Amino acid sequence: MPPTTHLTDPDVGYPATDPMPHGRQKRFRSLLIGGTSVALAVAVAGGVLVASRQGDEQASAQLAGALFTTGTAAAGDGQQLELNGVAATGATVVVAGGEDADSGYRTEFFLSKDAGRTFARAQVRTAKGEPPVAGEVPRYVAAGPGGWVALGDRVGGSVVWTSPDGAAWTRQPDATASLAFGPRDRVADVAWTGKGFTAVGQTSDKGDFTDASPVVWLSADGRSWERRAGWRLHPPTGGTLALTDVASVKDAIVVRGESSAEPYDITWRSTDAGETWQAFAVPGESGEPELTFAATATTMLAVRQDGSHATTYTSPDGVRWSTAAKIDVPGFRRVLRLTATAGAAVAAIETGSGVRLVRSTDGRSWQPAGATADGAEVRDAVAAGDNTVVVGADAAHGTTGALLAVRDKAGKDVPAKLPDTGGSGKVVDALGTADGRVVAVGGANGEAAVWTSADGSAWQHVQDKEKALTGQGRQRLTGVVPGFAGWLAVGSSGRTPGHPLVVTSADGESWRRADGAPAFQPEGKNPLVARGVTAGPDGYVIVGEDGYGAGTWWSPDLKTWERGNPAGEDNLVGTPATRRWMESVTGGLFGFVAAGGVTDPNAYGGVFVRRPTVWISPDGRKWSLVRLPIPSGVNEGWLSHIASNDDVLVTAGTAVTGNGTGTAAFGYASLDGGRSWQPISLPVMAGEQSSVTAMAVTPEGFVLAGTVGRPGDVVVWTSADGRSWKSEQPRGTGMSGPGDQRLTAFTTVGEELVGVGSTATGHGDEPTVWRRPLSPDETSTP
């Protein structure tokens, strides 16, 4: 799993007798994760279960979309939306994708009943009727006589959604999906195949898919799936094999596989609902993989690329094939996608001047069906009545905006628009305080944004007079820190390859770009990602990613920048099998210490096993890697946050548990500036998932935020010394209840702890602000 995908789900907070949101009853436990053991215990004092809990009179939380004004339209403009798949039956169309919102990726389905002319947002709920959690991405969607199914992915596995009508979708439980879809499976296609749904893809024992083997999944209703491993579908010449296409006609299921050795295209046919398979061949030959399948109600179609054109073959049963026609369009390069509904097939053709669409009802005669703009990324297309609907990414937003194109029978544009994205269109990711000024950074409607405040209550949007916060594609600031030379904020820019967004300010009000320096220029296609930022006596440090490796940048004065260097051979430089990434960094008299993870090919025999890692630097320029023991009892873990108070350091992150479906917050403390580390115990609630979302140092010590459950409620851990920790459960709007709640940053304002974050429901996201005294009263609850 790429390290740029992060889990954010945690656990902790309610006393055993409190009624829980969503009808849950919970009890406390202590999760101790060390280098060699995981121990679970209920903390009991005098026969009474004890937990730190804040009183309602001490703290308050509020929705903050109106506090963080921008002077622009409040609703999102689609730059955070992506569309991955589309399916149709008659004039009914479903588009699947999601929104990259503050709380993480949020699943979205859109329904049209008039062949793509108008769309409405579909309802998405879990099997318990709750809003789904963040971070789940639908990629493939199919329609059958009895309903719809969508398949996608999340960290650690696959996700299944079903719908009877396309208007209301149910996210099926992991317990059901995980029986068929493993953490090392990849789904590539799904289709209705006469008596149910069939999905195809690949699996890997190693985890890096250098040993890919085929998998078929079968389902009668889209909810329960049966996994058929590839022992019946081995390529005759050995090598690896991944299934990429599935289609059906007259109860015959046809799957296509892509082999690493000749013949590159291998095909099978089943007439008994996937019980047995027989290999067959489509006419024509090629020296590379280039075959694709689709089926109308009466005809199976195979399209084979052949130099400057494509050739179509048709079959009534998947056995007898005949050459049907050529698809020959000016500037032909390759077939991007071939799909079919009962009435027509659509081929999306990449040309030298954009993507051309062609349609056919029988595979013998193909008619132009329109085109998309040059540079658009087409991910799927489908025939809906006389219209053709195309989805993907819009190059005008640097591949971060959604592409929805509808063309009529003559290929002319049909004006179509998705509903406005839900929520405020604003995100608040980080906070900093210095000289009586609080600075918040994040994004608004696809551009980076900065707000300032004197008290953490009233916020003013910073006017971007220098145009430092705008640019090609989506811009967003995710970290900010004050230092002796001024303020530094970092984030991401939508440029390709990935480019860090780095801005500086003398006063927090006027910002200038700094990422034009040579140190921030990517080498080749390796993306650069800036994630964490800090300031110390020796200057400023930014950490993140440099391609497969960890990236660091150091500046003594915010004027000159240089890249960090490894103290050892593999300290920063990574490979596809040994990735390195840093997510957070802290500085002090000890120098600098960064936290993140590495993928370890020797851990549990898996290439993509992530291990918690810190890097130590005396000066911000030369870095040494230190692997921390991966906790036993969990599959993998990585660190997302680090903070320091003098020579005491705390780092925390997320561990993956069970079969890849569970998460647990864990961490370590160092009392000697990062030279040695010990595990810390974070109180969490039994039976729930947890992770870490924010960390800071206050005059009272350390404070950590996380979430508990799926969807998540906020939990806060505090410690005076970094070793012993207490938990509290904030309540109310934006902290608990329906939806996903999280805090993403803390700062201290006077005698108050101020946190910012978000609440996400099925209707959208909204920033939140939470405040409480630095020293809350503690109560014991029986």
Automatic annotation (TrEMBL):
Residues 297-516 form the DUF6242 domain. Residues 1-23, 756-782 are annotated as: Disordered. Signal peptide: none annotated. Keywords: Membrane, Transmembrane, Transmembrane helix. InterPro entries: DUF6242_C, Sialidase_sf, WD40/YVTN_repeat-like_dom_sf. The keyword Transmembrane helix applies. The chain crosses the membrane at residues 30-51. The keyword Zinc does not apply. It comes from the Bacteria. This is DUF6242 domain-containing protein. It comes from Nonomuraea monospora.
